[in-house]
Batch of 4 targets.
Target 1
Amino acid sequence: MATQIQPGTERPEVPRAQPGIEQFTLEQRIALLEQELEQLRRTTPDANKVTLLIFSGEQDKALAGLVIATTAASLGMDVTLFFTFWGINVLKQKRVYSGKDIKEKMIDFMTPKGAGHMGVSQMNMLGVGANMLQQMMKDKNVVSADELLVLARESGVRIIACSMTLQVMGIKAEELMNDIEVAGAASYLESASRSGCTLFI
């Protein structure tokens, strides 16, 4: 039954069809699709990308992170290692006391130089446990954390030292291994947000 409109009543507005993609030219459609694909690339994690944040200053934990990083790199994955706070000591190759205040010198003296001088998270026993672990690894021909770090760099792993950690602890870039980046948390977040696998160690 048809609806009758009373005199003086305004006729309801009929919704107008919104312009659809069919109204665009082929070139415009391709341009829109390319924009959508680029947006997906920026927001979708890449299953072939791995980002690890190394926070711990314990040798066995650093070793685990380096094993994962080098294994992923050997599989052709894009790997980023971000070292911060106590984990930054994995990258230390030497000590430089000149130009530092007393607190910075104390931190430098009390923190290990390289993964090989770090303690372990369990049964460290004033360093006896760490030495025992290293000897057991050597007896079984297992590469050390220091060797894995070199292998990671040679395998194309992106290695980043946290700039804020260097500033707070008074660590100079010259104390670290060569050919690494110094960047802030934004670089870590940019890499982590695009990674299919992200680990905090």
Target 2
Amino acid sequence: MYGDNIVSDEEFLLLYDTFNTKNPEFPYGNYERFDLDSMNSAECKAEFRVEKQDPPRLVAALQLPPVLRCEQRSICDDIEGLCMLLKRVAYPCRLSDMIPRFGRPVSVVSLITNDVIDYVYDVHGHLITQWNQDLLNHGALQRYADAISGQGAPLDNCFGFVDGTVRPISRPDERQRIVYNGHKRVHALKFQSLSLPNGLIGNLYGPVGEFFFVKKVLVIVFSYVNFLSNFCSHL
């Protein structure tokens, strides 16, 4: 249009400024695609928090499909998708920080990471949101109680510890007060969990927002009503 003199210089500049992307451009094409074999053990441990031989084992344990396809048709293999997720959650980082390792645009890194998270949650989320008989059977609960008591705890029937976490979120457009955390001074969602002495999460309740002056009581009550209902149904 500009070359055919359909629009003037001023109109062209206005259109260019309106439709030009405001996102920073990252030269992802300057980097090679991800190759686990090219990394040494120290790099894997530093970036993914696992040993170099662990990603294939995790792929098998998590039952990831060999090929992951995003909604906009980007694809990657199971190892790359898992390593993207591991790097994303190993330490707080921006998506752009992952470009040198994976050689992909920010949008694709985001889509793949979210797809892997969704898959893992859909397939395995029940292990922490519902009753996990492997972790919470009668024999296991007694072993937890014995381990805690053996470390000098005054109780001999304590098998886990209540733990909670506040996860900040972007400020919502509506009902901001529901999720505003006055203590942390951020908008956030809360999770309540039962931590076992072996380091695993036995049960997870959430997410929930803030409930003003009764928020802590409600979170604890809802969490343990959910936990005890599951416990009683497996007696």
Target 3
Amino acid sequence: MVLLSVKNSLELHPLPQWPVVDFEIRMSANRFTHVPEEDSDQCGASPGAGPLFSVIVPFLNEEGWLPKCLAALRSQSIDPALVEWILIDNGSTDRSAEIVRDEPRATLLAEPRRDPYIARNRGILAARGEYLAFLDADCLAEPDWLAAMQQELAKSDAAILIGYLAYPSPRSLALQLHEDYEDAKLRQVLESESSACWFGHAGNMVVRADVFKEIGLFEPMPVVGDTEIIHRLRQRQPDAVVRYASAARVVHAEVDSFSMCLTKTYEIGAHSETLARVSPYRTLSLAERLRVVGRCYRIHGYGPGRWLALWGILTLGYAAFVAGRLARGFANQSRPQ
């Protein structure tokens, strides 16, 4: 019954428009060889030579969300002189590029190869900021987003900051519980669990520009490239600091139902096995998941009804993750060698 419910949800919300990209990982001296050395040397600016933040937003046919995304960026409380915006058209066929072109503060770039991480790489190479702030076109930054990132950077030597992803209001109980759990998971994993479990999300993430100079650009790895870059950094720099900036909030506006969460969880599951094969990453064990649930309970103090509802949504989420992983495994087995 659980897997049937997940299947029905996925049929209601098909996977995003970016295609699944087949790729081959080739490593040499712990560096991904597809990143040209001369390109990696161009990443970001030297401290003090440009803006503090370069906000990098890839988009593909997002004419509905881009006006709201840009309006949220205009509303940032941080000094505008400290920020540049770089938006990358990843092959849109609607009015998306025109909308960005009409925004005087935005730099518009084009990347015809349809992959969000390749598009982000295009933005990285053009960025002048000391820190690169990654955002998705369907994500709406709250007014203090970059100010909160700046405050977190001022009190830590973080190489990577992961921000808080909220869901739009009004939201269902299931969506609220899922948001609560994801918040507790980031707190628990980044503060208390093995670094092998660390993960990121490029819809709200800040990376120091010199990280890309050191380890190269994002791999064109569907969905999980943001997590892969964390583990590649930790392999090169074991003491690199990755922190959770919970005050830096972004609303993932597209995700307005729990069934959409299940769709995205299925997609993550489909690519998690590949990520584990090319990096030290592993999924949370049962004991680690139980510690996350316990932390979620301590933060929010759920009553019996919400406690049971939380276990229900976690069961569905885990089923979606496993279904995605199994589907990808079957697809790989049936592919001609």
Target 4
Amino acid sequence: MNPTDPNAEWLEADGLGGFASGTVSGIRTRRYHALLLTAITPPAGRMVLVNGFDAWVETPSGTFAISSQRFGPDVIHPDGASHIESFEYEPSPRWRYKIDNDLIVEQELFVPKEESAVFVSWRVVAGIGDAGQPGSSTPATAGIKLKVRPFLSGRDFHATHHENGSFKFEAEQNGERVTFRSYDGVPAVITYSNGRYTHEPTWYRNFLYSEELARGLDASEDLASPGVFEFSLSQKPAVLMLASEGHAITDIESIEARHAQVRTIEQARRQYFSSPLERAVDAYLVNRGKGRTLIAGYPWFGDWGRDTFIALRGLCIATGRLEEARDILLQWAETVSEGMLPNRFPDQGEQPEFNSVDASLWYIIAVNDYLLAAEKQPTLTDDCHTKKLRAAVEAILAGYNEGTRFGIRADRDGLLSAGEPGQQLTWMDARVDGREITPRIGKPVEIQALWLNALAVGAQFSARWETLLEKGRAAFEAKFWNEHAGYLADVIDCDHQLGVIDLTFRPNQIFAVGGLPLMLLSKEKARRVVDAVEMLLLTPLGLRSLAPGEPGYASHYQGDSRARDSVYHQGTVWPWLIGGFVEAWVRVRGSTARAKKQARERFLPPLYEHLNHAGLGHISEICDAEPPQTPRGCPFQAWSLGELLRLERSVL
């Protein structure tokens, strides 16, 4: 695939929480775009070590840039982006730069699995369509040199870097190896190349990141450049490896041999996956200590509870990666406290954050999905593991039933009450100036759907939950259904006041019909809910978070952080919701083969097309509520991709 949008973004993740990322044009538009971004305490402690580089080709007829940067106030220099003839992101990012009529230089980049390192290589292609032969020299390719000047920082990946007197420009040279130690306490950058390094320290000032500017954040940066690597492209391809000391293999005899070996391994590993979508899954699965976890989204999210359990169903269980699903679920099982799982996995020495009512319930749903899938694979039916998972389920249900933090408790009607002022416990969790935009205190509709489904899971191996489940199911339809409106309330018993109802039209009601094992409404009412959601909330890329015409509805997600957070769930489209909707749409049509075929043909193509925009090969976190539904937020979002895969593999 050759994307036409120069601002589309590519991602190479290392399986440790670190990554390389950038745009098709090569112009960095985010503070997170980097060549070497490492997780010091995987998957956390992420730092940008090498931000990027400038590169240019010297030929007998002149010097030609093959890179571009944006500088303030809005200057593009040099003009390398204009020389891009083609770009492909599968199986790894690869550019072809047209230098003149007879000369093309190809640049390839990849990050090896479970190493904080990146390999970049360049080779000459003697003519258009000619793959070229490494080591050969023709009149068209004679006397060609490549020069590469890397840009370094050594900063937190959320921050920006500015010129200062503390940066250490010194370079330690030893054969093919050059080491840079930017600051005390920051991992050294170890480079290997088959070129020659010349020390020419300087600062590059006032890089401008357009995406950060649009987000109202610090958008300028100064970067240090210690020197230049020079290669003779006439003789052989150029190879440059950059690695984080202590987080990659850096004892190398020959960089050319190492590059060839790792490239062969990586190509074979990537070809092993049955589809590009399954290969994309690999970006989100990372190591945490001796276990596994799941990154919620790139470039700025870490491993979050709610996101993990929603995404896990599609990324791992639907794709058959059951051992990884098991390992992730077992690791989280050890964090249950008073019936709650933290919404953010605690790093060493940090206090866990238990500010979520639904993370624990989504965990139970994911456990159920895993156990059902594991039954079909005898090698996974480990009684010890099953007992641990069921014990976690039981602890969550017991904690919620008896009452736990933030007013979370089972009410006398069998439904789950939750919330108190100052806390945002559902997935609609935006805050501005200390105020919750969608507090949803009381009994939110999707929380009841999750609670009743979780009770049904628990009742499979403990009869104590059957009565509560029956009581809750009877209360749900009676209390949430509004016959006049023809849909479900978003919250009942608002602010814990009996009978106070919020009829704001939001997508959360879809989970009473789809996305979870149980349908909680009669067929006729379920159809009315699905039809209403389709009419008011459905877009090609997901569901709006609020219906047009409702107070506070926002057609676009833009502006500074305050403006964006204010509309995060006020109309903004969320692709992850498409999973529950499509499953509901199929269910109310009897889950027939015809309905599934219609759903595949109608709802999946826009998502497949989106794979070639924004985050290439992935699905975005959010989009604008109104056409053209411009992608926003994280361009690489785990639960968005997970729900597409769950639809593709399990529902349709």
